[in-house]
Amino acid sequence: MLAHLESRLREIQRGLQEEASAMPPTGKRFFNAAEETASFVAGAFTTACELAVGTQAPKDSLRNRARLTRRAQAWLQEHMGDAVQVPDLCEALHVSRRELEYAFRSVLDQSPRDYLEALRLNAIRRALLRANANNATVIDIAYAHGVNHLSRFAANYRKLFGEKPAESLKGR
Fold this sequence. Notes:
By secondary structure, the protein is an all-alpha fold. It has helices at 2-22, 33-53, 62-78, 86-93, 97-108, 112-130, 138-144, 150-161, 165-170. Helix 1 (2-22) packs antiparallel against helix 2, helix 2 crosses helix 3 (62-78) and helix 3 (62-78) packs across helix 5. 16% of the residues are buried.
């Protein structure tokens, strides 16, 4: 158990270092640093509690919902380029949609669909900010990140970031 926690901590550290080195010097941001750190700490705490008590929590406990949410977040990160939807996530994790909804609402206070949308929009924004020299278009980047409905994407992007996707691509 402890070897797994140590391994996960090293993965997070490497990911943060790679993300920091990929960002331009003027706009360094750690987009997922807080999320990854919080996820790791929650996992470490859960494991420590289970080891101390020697029991498993009931299926509907907050601890198990947090564990399910972390598994879902990891799966979504791995499949970001695919056009995944919530039913795909449920099938991959072998849980019902209701169980996944309860877990996300309990832990993140948002639905899995809203989380997936925010995750996708943030990934697209990072790609747009990096794509200046690559001659990529907003449409290409959006489709590469699993967007299916361009007008809804543009409206949601503007609502979240306060600018059009094309403005992010140009770097204003």
